[in-house]
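User: Earlier you gave me the apo prediction for this protein. Now I'd like the version with adenosine-5'-triphosphate bound, so I can compare the two side by side. Same sequence as before, with the ligand SMILES added.
Assistant: Got it. Here's the input I'm using:
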Amino acid sequence: MSNALDIINGVKTISSGRQIINRLNLSIPHGEFMTILGGNGAGKSTLFNVISGQLFLTSGKVELNGEDVTNQSEENRAKYIARVFQDPKLGTAPRMTVSENLLLAQLRGKKRGLKKRQLAQQKEFFFEQCQKIGNGLENHLDTPTGNLSGGQRQALSLLMATIQKPDLLLLDEHTAALDPKTSRQLMDLTEKTISENNLTCLMITHRMEDALKYGNRLIVLDSGQVQKDMDETQKNQLELADLLMFFNL
Ligand SMILES: Nc1ncnc2c1ncn2[C@@H]1O[C@H](COP(=O)(O)OP(=O)(O)OP(=O)(O)O)[C@@H](O)[C@H]1O
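And here is the structure of the complex with adenosine-5'-triphosphate:
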């Protein structure tokens, strides 16, 4: 069986000649939940941009489910990939209501417009999905998302990203803008969503505790390369102090 993702000899060179992705090789089997650490400018977001098609490699290959998508557009790859960003404003359309955003997410990749009738049909399902989150989102189905708290918006973004069960879920520091308690709640929800749906997930984080606690693989990126790659056993033996040492903190 093919992997969910393969990057083979990936290189991204910018106009100055610097390689921001530098002969990077990475294979992600289906069902893996990998956390990604790395200092500022290590290439973490660039890696996600290369996977999602927002940036094209200068050389090398990107394969999703064994299919070569190196030259495929971001729109094409959106069939397979869902991404949640750090900024709560990026994941949702602010003037649209929670239900309308959820319906849009449900229709992603399908050529159908938003219809009032569909919205009415799906309301109960959306209510149940939001209720599972446990932050009161179900009482805001008709609220424009711009009026939600950051935590509610990020939980909604996660729900929108996973409502169609993507082949690959990319979490780009999705808890970074939240207070510690809300961040913990969103991480619990994230873990539950991933395990219940057996999703394949890559999660960038600056919180070392989260990189250790969640997932079954951990990589450290530096200068556009994978510097450390630890499987579940190696990861479980790691202590926070070991990680701090990698970063000379
Ligand atoms: N489109 C681009 N054009 C030119 N340089 C870029 C581009 N995208 C990223 N870079 C550069 O590539 C390097 C890696 O950036 P990237 O945003 O991937 O780092 P990061 O690991 O996500 O950092 P942070 O933790 O600060 O978000 C940086 O030096 C950045 O300035």
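For your comparison, keep in mind: The first strand starts at residue 5 and ends at 13.
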